[in-house]
Amino acid sequence: MCRQAEEPESLDSWSESGTVKNRYNYSRRSTFAQVLVTLIQNWLLIEMGLYSAMITTVIGALHLNPEEALSMSDEQASWFGIFVMYVLSYLFDWRSVALICSASPVITFTCMTQIPESPTWLIVKNRYEDARKSLCWLRGWVEPGKVEEEFQALVKHAKDSLRKNKSAQSVGDGLIKEGGYLKTQFKEMTSRKVLLPLRLILIVFVFREITTFSAIRPYLIGELHKLRTPINAKLVLIISEVLVFIGAMLNVAFLHRFGKRKIAILANGIVALCILGTGVYSSFLQDSTWMPQAAWLPVIFWLTLNFFCGFSAVLLPWQLVCEIFPIAGRGLACGITAGTKYLIQSAMIKSYLFIENWISLSGMMYLYGTGAVLGVIHLYFCLPETEGKTLQQIETYFTKNHDRKEKYSIGKAARVDHHPGSVDC
């Protein structure tokens, strides 16, 4: 009886308030669906398509010129955009920031349509005239005569590298691959020339995500509040991005003098100390009453960390991606590397809060600090020096036929002749 008496009441309430509630639930689900589709579209088209493509193709092509030093990667250039984002978030609400930034993908896509294919790829496809024009474009719209020597060296290197690959045979001026496309890609990816540098780059990326503490960045404002920093957390973000940019510029200035290896070991070591220092502060000094100035320590540690991340830690993997893979298998290897990087970053961000609830904020600092120390050890024993080396020399570092002393020393980029111990490819 009670149930029968309740039924008319529930039907009446549905006609009045239930409809509103149902519409609200539908609206909420619809909004979630639209947001999800927008995020997936951004991830596929903008993030993975434009962002990763610039690093692995255009910047890689620029690195092939031994006489003109590459002064900035797009990872460095993108920090200006991140800095603008932080400034906008400090000045406006998130809706206004989203509206302003919605123009960026359109501008980026338009600019990308004007970028030619990689000269190396065009050479492999026997499109020599297009490759020559692409090289002229990459060198600053110069005359073909100014890049002819470099172009001929590219042609020779491409042919020699692919001729050594078992899945290709030389036919006239071009190259015709035996077997199907998937079989060819599989053979290229399972060769030691690709697997060994791929292993190195993936390990470096893992330590890069640990050293740069990328997992904390989406939650950084809340974490700074937990540490009771005496300064606006959004202002800290702006200052840190400025320091990242300054560090990147110093990387450009000192790279050719000291090389990637020395800079990476120094920068990653200091970053590890900053992370561990923040952990010590969180454990012993955060609630201290006898030293109120200690509240500035996490801010100082974070700003120092960002400066040295810009100086090397963030840049190093992307610099290596452009240099250590052979032509045969380079495209797929770069794609696997970039995709794996984002999977690692996503896993670390998603797991951060769960692990923090388990071991506390100070425990996270000790965990990541220890990982950063292990990263420094790995760089010291395993990272070859690629600065000033030709692509042929770098490829030999992943074989048994190389000079170990040369592997860890800086080469002379201006020299055309080979260094002792290098092997023609």
From TrEMBL:
<dbReference type="GO" id="GO:0016020">
    <property type="term" value="C:membrane"/>
</dbReference>
<feature type="transmembrane region" description="Helical">
    <location>
        <begin position="31"/>
        <end position="64"/>
    </location>
</feature>
<dbReference type="Pfam" id="PF00083">
    <property type="entry name" value="Sugar_tr"/>
</dbReference>
<feature type="transmembrane region" description="Helical">
    <location>
        <begin position="296"/>
        <end position="317"/>
    </location>
</feature>
<dbReference type="GO" id="GO:0022857">
    <property type="term" value="F:transmembrane transporter activity"/>
</dbReference>
<dbReference type="InterPro" id="IPR050549">
    <property type="entry name" value="MFS_Trehalose_Transporter"/>
</dbReference>
<feature type="transmembrane region" description="Helical">
    <location>
        <begin position="196"/>
        <end position="216"/>
    </location>
</feature>
<feature type="transmembrane region" description="Helical">
    <location>
        <begin position="76"/>
        <end position="92"/>
    </location>
</feature>
<feature type="transmembrane region" description="Helical">
    <location>
        <begin position="236"/>
        <end position="256"/>
    </location>
</feature>
<feature type="transmembrane region" description="Helical">
    <location>
        <begin position="364"/>
        <end position="383"/>
    </location>
</feature>
<keyword id="KW-0472">Membrane</keyword>
<feature type="transmembrane region" description="Helical">
    <location>
        <begin position="263"/>
        <end position="284"/>
    </location>
</feature>
<keyword id="KW-0812">Transmembrane</keyword>
<dbReference type="InterPro" id="IPR036259">
    <property type="entry name" value="MFS_trans_sf"/>
</dbReference>
<keyword id="KW-1133">Transmembrane helix</keyword>
<protein>
    <recommendedName>
        <fullName>Sugar transporter</fullName>
    </recommendedName>
</protein>
<feature type="transmembrane region" description="Helical">
    <location>
        <begin position="324"/>
        <end position="344"/>
    </location>
</feature>
<dbReference type="InterPro" id="IPR005828">
    <property type="entry name" value="MFS_sugar_transport-like"/>
</dbReference>
